[in-house]
Amino acid sequence: MRPLVALACGTLFGAGLTYAGMTDPARVLGFLDVMGNWDPALAVVMVGALLVSLPAFQWARRHPRPLLDTQFFLPERFRVDADLMLGAALFGLGWGIAGLCPGPALAGLASGMPEVLLFVAAMATGMSLRSWRVRQRARAGEFECKS
Amino acid sequence: MNSGKLASMFDAGLRAALFGGLMIGAAAALFYWLNGRIAGVSGIFGDLFLDRRNGHSPWRLAFISGLLLGYLLVRAWRPELGQIHLQTNPAGMAIAGLLVGYGTRMSCGCTSGHGICGVARISPRSLAATGIFMLAAMITVALVRHSGLLP
Fold it and tell me: Helices marked H in chain A — which ranges?
């Protein structure tokens, strides 16, 4: 049942991204280009998503566990640390160059465009590099995301 | 094209953005209520090949497959949607992909995990990450498009 829910939620997520125009790097960069002909679409998408997810996540706090599993799986870190800030800045740099983040890039793989596949392959490589670096420095207490 | 027509096109685009956003929020909410998981794409995708203990559980591949399926369904329904206009050359795509992969893994989340789920949980880490990646991306676009420093 859980994989089926994951497939359904992934499909709804991917359909929402596509319907909203967020799989198009031109629309994404149009939002990020605050000095140019600004396109508010991405902000509208965020507001639309939060209109549903904010009450939903707050309401879930009253419940001890999800319907189909024994616990909620939440991140184990709470501090705003240097890794979080530097990582987010690096992500923003890449996002601003290509206009693609992980969700739209993976959904857009279905277009069959080789450039999108190139982006996803590079993204997987970047993720592996980070994981390798963390394992290398594991004794120094460096952290790999877990939930 | 007169301004009225332009305005109505703009409205249609923003209506689609709002509707798409509601779908994304609903997907994240249902995934959390039913499976108890954060719909964070960088984590779900990365753990597929990086988490040797739990990465093979079928729900990860199912969620990622769904993203592609959702794209195809919208294109089948409305062929004019889901167009992809590339904004950089292949070298730019490769560099951007590396940065997005490394950065999202380092900050434990991307636009979905931090931007939608984390902000909805009012998580301080996600609020900080979302502000930083938005600002960094806006500065990047300003430098690329308006600084005249780049070819």
Answer: 2-19, 25-32, 41-60, 82-98, 102-108, 114-136
